[in-house]
Amino acid sequence: MSASRVVVVGGGVSGLATACLLARDGHKVTLLERSGELGGRAGAWEHGGFAFDTGPSWYLMPEVFDHFYRMMGTSTDEQLDLVPLEPGYRVYAQTPGPRHGVPAATDVGAGADRVAALFESREPGSGARVHRYLASATRTYRAAVSSFLYNPFSSWRSFTSASVLTAAPAVLPLLVRSLWSFISRRFSDPLLRKILGYPAVFLGTSPFEAPALYHLMSHMDLVDGVQYPMGGFRSFVSSLAELARAAGVEIRTGSDVVRIASEHGRVSAVEFVQDGRRQRLDADIVVSAIDEHHTETVLLAPNDRSYRPRRWRRQITGPSAVLVLLGIRGTLPELPHHTLFFSDDWRENFDAIFGASPRVPQPPSIYVCKPSATDDAVAPADHENVFVLVPLPPDPSIGHGGTARTGDARVTAIADAAVAQIGRWAGIPDLDSRIVVRRTIGPADFESDFNTFRGSALGPAHTLRQSAFLRGVTRSRRVSGLFYAGATSVPGVGLPMCLISAELVLKHVRGDHSAGPSEVR
Question: What is the percent of the chain with per-residue pLDDT over 90, rounded to a whole number?
Fold first, then answer.
């Protein structure tokens, strides 16, 4: 195959990964990134000796990373220093538990036997049931990876391949019921249900709406376990940038793409503004690795758009968030690397985010990451690095964040309430008084910084009608040579999905219709 001139729009994880794979395949690749930094939503911020990740913080699906690095002629071991987390995470419940003596804090480790022991301690008889649940999660996960996630569905043959037909009986029955109903039929304890249901948030949806297919997520945290790349997720982004440059990718930051042009139904060029000057790059292939809505509604001419306006009106958008980055004086033994704070009334929580009357959940279920539990490099001595995520409706009117207390009033109030809630539930009454660095990020920041639709932090929710090949396109329906990658495209949300989306673009360019991971050349 002859080399093509490729322009990748967006220097987040999916854009960098796509640039890496296409350049290694022999194409001449230029990557254009709007901001001055790479990583997109997998960003970083440093202040006062603290180094914060401002985006993804869970390292799951390690085999996807392993496969990507092999595709690039290297290995995960060469690129990252991974540490398994023990416990994988801790859970604090709003109400400690249904029985006397059950602690408010519950540590969750990895491995089916350990998970079964935890379940049995809270709900007699549930140990054997969770063994079966996790075995099903593992089977479904493997079927998804081998037959669906890496499948470009680029022809009708993609739907009738042997691997897809073999996997279908394990997958199709899980599409007709919700994840929550699937869990609730098997377990009664409220906390155990939430441990199995919370991964729906990673998918930008509610366990009451996500199909039961997504119980496969429990294979990732409860069977495989959770890891952390030393140096933070910025080390992962750095590895992608280094591999891209080594493969010959030209990376141009500060380049704001304003138009993707076409001629006679084929992509022809990308126009962008750099240093105040409008420029143009001719291209045989363009990959949009930014928010799909922005590409479709702003960068493309109306006749080049794959979707009608009603798609965006009907889209169920995943949640936004207020992020709170905190530098804390002293230690916080109450918080391990990952901590989840579960409110009692989940239906109320998720209705507040996804329902007809969007509002801030009261109280919200909160996620906290303390990477300084594992990595001394992310905080000064005798201090802690704390990242707080408060899920919210996708609503930019909630406002912008800021450093110290300079954010918009609603964002500041949400952050204040979250810090107070963490302090109460985890038993850290002086948490607020020990803050030495603080920054907030609000829904309006996601919209302005990343052009995300409705200020979402994640993209379209993984409902049944917005999953797998129903989620969208990886190849334009109108413009030959135009492809899509990233969290708003196929296969979905999360770092592993972004790596897979990059490989789907590679498959399209190669004309590879296979269902599973590409063979390493």
Answer: 84
199 preceded by a cis bond (ω within 30 of 0): no
**CA dihedral sign of residues 474, 475, 479, 480:** positive
Separation between Cα atoms, residue 515 and residue 157, nearest integer Å: 10
Distance between CA atoms of residues 457 and 288, nearest Å: 18
Q: What is the pLDDT of residues 290-330, one digit of tens each?
A: 999 999 999 999 999 999 999 999 999 999 999 999 999 99
Q: Whole-structure pTM over 0.90, yes or no? A: yes
Whole-angstrom distance, CA of residue 255 vs CA of residue 275: 8
Give the Cβ contact number of residue 182 at 10 Å. 21
**Alpha-carbon distances of 243 from 23, 74, 137, 356, rounded to whole Å:** 10, 9, 33, 45
Return the SS3 of 225: coil
Beta-ladder partners of 439: 325, 403
Q: For residues 359 and 348, what is the distance between their CA atoms, to the nearest angstrom?
A: 10
CB neighbour class for 120 (10 Å; exposed up to 12, middle 13-18, buried from 19)? middle
For 316, counting Cβ atoms within 10 Å of its Cβ (0-12 exposed, 13-18 middle, 19+ buried), the class is: middle
Q: Which residues contact 22 (CB under 8 A, 6 or more apart)?
A: 6, 8, 29, 285, 287, 505, 506, 509
pLDDT digits (tens, 9 = 90+) for 239-278: 999 999 999 999 999 999 999 999 999 999 999 999 999 9
Contact predicate 485/497, CB 8 Å: no
